[in-house]
Sequence to fold (78 residues):
Amino acid sequence: MAYYKYANFLSQQQGTEFDVIHPPATATPFSGIYRCTGCGLSVTSVYEHHLPPQNHHQHANYLVPIRWQLTVKSHYRQ
Ligand SMILES: [Zn+2]
Fold:
């Protein structure tokens, strides 16, 4: 889960980049906050650096894979 205090610091967008599910260790397409689709854990990742790998954290059900979905995108790509 990602948290914020001031909603007026965020703007909603409808871009398809928020719908893409990324495998672990993928090059980060946009700087921002990503959530694990398996458990909701959030991480910050920077453009062109890699999203966390498969062994980043453990799920109670080991069959649930780690996948990353963009939650909050930085204004600039990098
Ligand atoms: Zn997870």
User: Anything to note?
Assistant: The radius of gyration is 13 Å. The mean pLDDT is 94. The chain has one domain: 20-78. Residues 20-78 form one domain.
